[in-house]
Write a structure and sequence with these properties.
With about 625 residues, this protein is an alpha/beta fold. The chain starts with a strand and ends in an 18-residue tail after the last helix. The structure holds fructose -6-phosphate. Fructose -6-phosphate binds next to helix 9 and helix 16.
Length: about 625
């Protein structure tokens, strides 16, 4: 994780500092253990830095009492701690060289830093932090002394580093230059007019330019006010891929809501609608141009493995029910970190579908790479253009949720489920058979879902009220069956991460095999009830489950379809959702649970957008 910003441009009106601080504010979701800035101070022939543990606000206050000099060249960092605790000393930037004229920031982990540090210590290099980053800073300063060229110095260092990293560096003897390097960690270039930018993602510079350049793996980029140059880690000239950013600055801001999470919950109708856009031709047939895998290869698939983490894995569990039903292809869902270090059985006919909002989750990336090495076909369902996982996959199906800034995922979840439905329907269409004909009808129904989510969002006042009353609750359980089961797990996850309350999601049928022992008088339990038209009489079975826990004193908070009167006698509260066919229900049933977690967290006075101990993009294993 960690957010990274770099800037070179004119030295006027404090612009460099403003750009970097604004970029850090937009990237703070990536980590908020500390923040820091380094600027090239040409007047004093040095690099000036200011850094503080804690949120960006601390750095902002420090800059009032200790202002940095005017500059044309600046880098900034917002940290999610890995090596070394969240202290001022461990905050980035880190200096290198006896004269401290070099400053470096880093995202990722340098796995061989112990060996490198030993080497530097033997040469009497002094360290002032516990970080792996400072080792890279000292190595880079040493290479700069030898080469007197920041790009060549970076080239000399990157091949000595193992692990995942994005590095940005400035040097007092190279004013007007920022050099960046990336391996398995994100870095994009923003191309301006007389100024250029670097960022962990485009949010870093979206207020200034929409022209961006995606860098390849193992590349070094050098930006000056008038240009940029890219080389590979072998020193060969390279080119990034230019693209236009379609998100606007407002989309990356709160849009009038008190928190990003509330905004993003309200963005959900749009996220689903945008993800559905452009997937069918004029006859209504699904066309997935961006997939880049031949129809023959897809047709040969005999097994699907979904790899993902957290919320994305719950989207994968929903996908399993839908894809198996529509295609009759067996689908397994594996937590990416478990998949990678098991001994997975895959063949060229196995399709590994990774799901990731950020496209940078290291656990998921490693699973994808492993699957490819074993010969599987890989498709990435991803929300972030230019990120690593789609690039490392054979094909990508982008979700179009727009930037998700709040650490807890909401709109990306709905967009991921939607994209998985599209993939399942496409595979069904390719194979022919019963559900091929249904694909168009399901797509039609999906098109109506955003309106239903928007409607549902205007009817959740009672949920907000219940959340406020429950601010002192210590434990909440969630039950569901079939596609309601991953929704129960996701509802519990939202509550854990936002409100720090013990919460667990169970398959409702599993209750009697143990968890029912947890039920005592007053225990709040959310139950996600499938629609009465769900096959296998699942509706009836869940209504029985509600009766079982109610009889033992549970307080039952029932999420049921409009018109479902069977639940009423056994519910302490009924939360209504609009009707959809059974497999599409998660797009609606999760919404009240997100709103519940948001309002309970707010009632407890917690930081909804940046819950403790978490970071948006988990780029370490
Ligand atoms: C929970 C949450 C996480 C992520 C997980 C995967 O609200 O956001 O569980 O879903 O870390 O992240 P991505 O989707 O970026 O791979």
């Amino acid at each position: 994780m960690c957010g990274i910003v770099g800037y070179v441009g004119p030295n006027v009106d404090g612009r460099a500092l403003d750009v970097v601080m604004e970029g850090l504010a937009r990237l703070e979701y990536r980590g908020y253990d500390s923040a820091g800035i380094a600027v090239v101070d040409t007047a004093r022939d040095t690099v000036a830095t200011e850094k503080r543990a804690g949120k960006l606000e601390n750095l902002r206050s420090a800059l009032v009492t200790h202002p940095l000099p005017d500059t044309s060249t600046a880098i900034g960092h917002t940290r999610w701690a890995t090596h070394g605790g969240p202290t001022d000393a461990n905050a980035h930037p880190h200096r290198g060289g006896v004269d401290g004229k070099l400053a470096l920031i880093h995202n990722g982990i340098i796995e061989n830093f112990h060996a490198l540090k030993r080497e530097l210590l033997a040469e009497r290099v002094a360290f002032s932090s516990e970080t792996d980053t400072e080792v890279a800073a000292q190595l880079l300063a040493r290479e700069f002394e030898r080469t007197q060229d920041l790009t060549m110095a970076m080239l000399g260092v990157v091949n000595r580093l193992e692990g995942a990293f994005t590095l940005l560096a400035v040097h007092a003897d190279a004013p007007g230059v920022v050099v960046g390097a990336r391996r398995n960690s994100p870095l994009v270039v923003g191309l301006g007019d007389g100024e250029n930018f670097l960022g962990s993602d485009v949010a870093a510079f979206i207020g200034h330019t929409r022209h961006a350049l995606e860098l390849g793996q193992d590349q070094i980029v050098t930006i000056t006010p008038d240009g940029h140059e890219v080389i590979t880690f072998d020193g060969e000239p390279a080119h990034g891929t230019a693209y236009e950013v379609t998100w606007d600055a407002a989309a990356a801001e709160k849009g009038g809501y008190p928190t990003f999470m509330e905004k993003e919950i309200n963005d959900q109708p749009q996220a689903v609608a945008d993800t559905l856009l452009g997937r069918t031709d004029e006859t209504g047939r699904l066309v997935l141009d961006e997939l880049r895998i031949s129809e023959d290869q897809l047709d040969a698939v005999d097994r699907i493995v979904v790899v993902a983490c957290g919320t994305a894995a719950y989207a994968g569990m929903v996908a399993k029910y839908a894809i198996e039903h529509w295609t009759r292809i067996p689908v397994e869902v594996s937590l990416a970190h478990e998949f990678r270090y098991s001994d997975p059985i895959v063949s060229p006919r196995t399709l590994v579908v990774s799901i990731s909002q950020s496209g940078e989750t290291m656990d998921t990336l490693m699973a994808v790479k492993h699957a490819r090495q074993l010969g599987a076909l890989t498709i990435s369902v991803c929300n972030t253009h230019g990120s690593t996982i789609p690039r490392e996959s054979d094909a990508v199906l982008y979700t179009h949720a727009g930037p998700e800034i709040a650490v807890a995922s909401t709109k990306a979840f709905l967009a991921q489920i939607t994209a998985c439905y599209i993939l399942g329907l496409y595979l069904a269409q390719l194979r022919g058979g019963t559900y091929a004909d249904d694909a168009q009808a399901v797509m039609k129904e999906l098109e109506g879902v955003p309106g239903k989510i928007a409607d549902l969002l205007t009817h959740l006042d009672r949920v907000k009220e219940i959340a406020r009353f429950m601010a002192d609750t210590r434990s909440v359980l969630f039950l569901g069956r079939n596609v309601g089961y991953p929704v129960a797990m996701e509802g519990a996850l939202k509550l854990k991460e936002l409100a720090y309350i013990h919460a667990e999601g169970f398959a409702a049928g599993e209750l009697k095999h143990g968890p029912i022992a947890l039920i005592e008088a007053g225990q709040p339990v959310f139950i996600i009830v499938p629609g009465p038209d769900t096959p296998h009489e699942l509706h009836k079975k869940v209504v029985s489950n509600i009766q079982e826990i109610r009889a033992r004193g549970a307080r039952t908070l029932v999420i049921a379809q409009e018109g479902d009167e069977d639940v009423v006698p056994f519910a302490d509260e009924v939360i209504r959702v609009p009707h959809t066919s059974p497999l599409l229900q998660p797009l609606l049933t999760i919404v009240p649970l997100q709103v519940f977690a948001l309002h309970l967290s707010t009632a407890k006075g917690l930081d909804v957008d940046q819950p403790r101990n978490l970071a948006k993009s988990v780029t370490v294993e």
